[in-house]
Design brief:
The complex is a heterodimer of chains A (about 325) and B (about 100). Chain A is mostly helical. Chain A has 15 helices and no strands. The chains are: A mainly alpha (about 325), B mainly alpha (about 100). Chain A: This is Membrane protein.
């Protein structure tokens, strides 16, 4: 169903497409602000500006299918959370409030896990918060990609999580990114909360959830979201270093902190790459790992887009 | 009661960091370095989370049936299996290995 999201050949670059809004979110977004920025309605033909450099335009049905695939698969894993939370001694109401108001799975699992382990509730909350900090980085990326008006952002923010980010980044145009974000967010939110409730109610009936392998669903979901991002040697180096940091610091730092340390893999690899390029000045810059050209290309692409946007704003 | 406080703090904190990410001024994001970083940070975070959820229980590193399940999921991904199949394979293989006493 969602094979597209797991395909490494789909570029996650943002295209400044101008297209007719078709999603609920896009409609709300674009409707009241005609003549404003990129989203001001269709231009004739409304092709993606990057059409020449992206594969064939992706039909809405394919985006919806991918988004539903991720939303349903991950949404159903709310069952595992409901079971785990109830098993950790939280009440039905507490379990459901977590899914309704926190809505970021890893943080929820971290919180109930720490409470079950007898940890101080505030330390547990801190661990869950640290895990949630990564969503700020996703928001940073989505802010530009989706270009939502400010009044929509407080609503959209609640859906800024791993899965909606991954689906949005896999889309070739802003229009399809918005569509993917909305469908994934809506499906996931509804299902995650329903299955949390069912899981909490059925926790006693199912018995030992680990025996059913439910604890492997989380990492499998993360892996499936990560796979299409590993396009070049740079991404792979970042992922490899992050794994080493995340596992290396796990035994010695409080829960949640090792993941933040692992995030440093991104600037570290960029810095090392910058040095490598610096050392090769005057030589053949493209003789490296193959990602050099990619990085330079993207930089140029970004500058071009910025220039185009500024032009438009004037 | 303290559990409710923890839930409230987590909910408010997690929502605020999501919102902050979306509200950062666009100018900040126009620098190529920031764009490159924002693209790479999710890669680092997802990779670390995948590894931690596969190889850890609490604060200790362990190698158990999850490794087989996630390994099978990786294989399914290489074969371009659909998302639901990837997750299903991970759960089924993990449960299977545990059933066999792994």
């Amino acid at each position: 169903m969602a094979e597209q999201t797991a395909r490494p050949d789909i570029p996650a670059k943002e295209a400044y497409a101008t297209a007719a809004p078709s999603t609920a979110l896009a409609a709300r977004t674009d409707g009241p602000a005609p003549g404003h920025g990129d989203a001001a309605g269709p231009r004739p033909g409304s092709p993606s500006r990057d059409a020449s450099s992206t594969p064939a335009a992706k039909p809405d049905s394919a985006v919806v299918r991918d988004a539903l695939g991720v939303g349903i698969a991950v949404g159903l894993s709310g069952f595992a959370f409901g079971v785990t939370s109830a098993g950790s001694g939280l009440t039905l109401l507490q379990t459901c409030v977590l899914s309704l108001l926190v809505f970021t799975g890893a943080s929820q699992f971290a919180l109930v896990g720490a409470i079950a382990a007898g940890g101080n509730p505030l330390a547990a909350a801190a661990g869950a918060f640290f895990l949630g900090v990564r969503n700020a980085f996703y928001g940073l990326r989505l802010s530009q990609l989706l270009a939502l008006p400010r009044f929509v952002r407080p609503l959209a923010a609640h859906w800024v999580i791993d899965e909606t980010t991954a689906v949005s980044l896999a889309q070739p145009t802003r229009r399809t990114a918005r569509l993917g974000f909305t469908i994934t967010g809506l499906t996931l939110y509804v299902l995650w909360n329903l299955t949390t409730l069912l899981g909490a109610l059925g926790a006693e009936a199912i018995g030992d959830t680990d025996a059913w392998g439910i604890d492997a669903a989380g990492p499998a979901v993360f892996l499936a979201l990560l796979a299409p991002m590993l396009r070049t040697a740079t991404e792979r180096a970042v992922a490899g270093l992050a794994v080493l940091l995340g596992l290396g610091f796990l035994p010695v730092l409080p829960a949640g902190v090792p993941v933040l340390v692992a995030a440093l893999a991104a600037p570290a690899v960029l810095w090392l790459k910058g040095r490598a390029i610096g050392n090769r000045v005057g030589g053949n810059r493209d003789s490296g790992d193959g990602s050099t050209g990619d990085g330079a290309g993207r930089t140029k692409e970004a500058r071009t887009k910025n220039a185009q946007r500024k032009e438009r704003e004037q | 009661m303290s559990i409710w406080i923890a839930i409230g703090a987590t909910a408010v904190g997690c929502y605020l960091v999501k919102l902050v990410g979306l509200l950062v001024p666009a100018d900040t994001l126009e620098r190529p370095l920031v764009q490159r970083l924002a693209a790479l940070l999710p890669v680092a975070l997802l990779a670390a989370l995948t590894a931690q959820q596969t190889f850890s229980t609490g604060q200790s590193l362990v190698l158990d049936a999850r490794f087989a399940g996630v390994g099978a999921a990786a294989l399914a991904l290489l074969l371009r299996a659909p998302f639901l199949v990837v997750v299903g394979v991970a759960v089924a293989v993990t449960a299977g290995v545990r059933a066999l006493g792994g």
